[in-house]
Design brief:
- It is a single chain.
- The protein has 8 helices and 9 strands.
- The protein is of the alpha/beta class.
- The chain folds into 2 domains: 1-44, no CATH class; 47-262, no CATH class.
- The strands form 2 sheets. Strands 1-3-5-8-9 form a 5-stranded mixed sheet. Strands 2-4-7-6 form a 4-stranded mixed sheet, with no helix packed on it.
- The radius of gyration is 21 Å and the shape is elongated.
- The N and C termini lie far apart (47 Å).
Length: 270
Amino acid sequence: MPVVQVYERYQREDAKPIYRLPKKPSESSALNLEDSWMVQYSRRVPIKFIGVWDTVGALGVKVKLSRHEKRGEFDSHFVRLSRSYEHAYQALAIDEHRKNFSPSLWYHFIPKKAPGKTHTAPPTVEQRWFVGAHSNVGGGYRNDLLPQLPLQWLQKKAIQAGLNFRQTIQLSGNELLDTPVDSYAEFLKGFYRVLKFGKRFYRKIGCGREEVTGGWIEPHLETIDSSVFDKWRANAEYRPVNLVIWAKKMNIDPQMIHGTMHARKANSST
């Protein structure tokens, strides 16, 4: 089957994914030729680890949420992980204020009625907030030390999952001296502010459960890295609006937090 045909199949609403097809070629006599090829020559591949930096609506991988949606038409802000993943981690940017760079959080679906089969979440999933704008977290600015923090975190998680590295990330201790880039003001040389009528977007920290058709969606584990609170204590000017809102909602003083914090549970560190 040529690649173009495989991709066209992926886009077709009526095409069954491999996990909904018979497991053995001997059980596929009633299938059409294309489906029988899928059964005979394809297989599900388990993915041990996925580590990503701030996947967003503008740039991130957009995952189909509902069987009622056409493939290719995705909601970029509610992303359900494949059952193929065993360990999944995402570094999120607190200080990104462009609305079309909204983060694509990983959610799981909670049905109102117990289904025969449920979507099984990976054994370990974590989405951790770090200081910085989108490219401060993912890397991209020159002479910027802020990306070292999420990079080291993801590397440690990959090592725990079994991946070997020739070198490990060593922090200098100066990472938090860097100031998050105001990507909202600088993007497109300032024209972004004009195009968006001057409105900044503040990412919500500690997203809760939301009702959808047939049940609810709830984000997988959200945490706030200890370095965020270190930055808060070290720099009186570092007061992200969304972090202030989160702290008030949780009735927590960021000044007093030492260590990584669960974003939806008060007095719960990780």
